[in-house]
C-alpha cells in the first residue's frame, strides 16, 4: 500500500461526496474549516488529509472510516451503498436550506408518503 494509492482513493471518494452534496469546493472547504488550497490538494490527490480533517469530513458527510478504505481489502464493510448515501446527503442538503416551518411541512409529507 503506497501513499499514492491512498491519495487516489481518498481524493476520488471526497470528490464523489462533494459533488453529490451540491457544494462548491469553496463551500465544502469552509464548512470543514480548512483552507481552500488544502482542500483542493486533498481533492486532487496531491496530499493526504490529516486525521482531524478526515474525521471532520466523516461527520459532515455521514461516512465512517471503514467507508474510505473498504475497497482495500475487497470487502465493503459499510453496507449502505455509496449512491444511497449520496442521495440521502443531497436530500439533507436541500432540506437544510429551507426555513424551519417548511422543513416541518416536508417532514410531514414524507411521513405520509412512507405509510
Automatic annotation (TrEMBL):
Protein name: Helix-turn-helix XRE-family transcriptional regulators
Sequence ranges assigned to domain HTH cro/C1-type in this UniProt record: 14-68
Pfam families registered for this protein in UniProt: HTH_3
Source organism superkingdom: Bacteria
InterPro entries registered for this protein in UniProt: Cro/C1-type_HTH (IPR001387), Lambda_DNA-bd_dom_sf (IPR010982)
Any GO molecular function: DNA binding
Source organism of this protein record: Termititenax aidoneus
Amino acid at each position: 500500500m503506497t501513499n499514492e494509492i491512498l491519495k487516489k482513493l481518498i481524493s476520488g471518494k471526497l470528490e464523489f461526496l462533494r459533488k453529490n452534496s451540491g457544494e462548491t469546493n469553496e463551500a465544502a472547504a469552509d464548512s470543514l474549516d480548512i483552507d481552500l488550497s488544502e482542500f483542493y490538494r486533498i481533492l486532487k490527490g496531491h496530499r493526504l488529509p490529516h486525521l482531524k480533517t478526515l474525521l471532520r469530513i466523516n461527520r459532515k458527510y455521514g461516512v465512517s472510516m471503514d467507508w474510505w478504505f473498504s475497497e482495500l481489502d475487497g470487502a465493503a464493510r459499510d453496507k449502505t451503498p455509496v449512491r444511497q448515501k449520496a442521495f440521502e446527503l443531497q436530500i439533507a442538503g436541500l432540506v437544510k436550506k429551507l426555513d424551519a416551518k417548511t422543513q416541518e411541512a416536508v417532514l410531514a409529507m414524507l411521513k405520509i408518503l412512507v405509510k
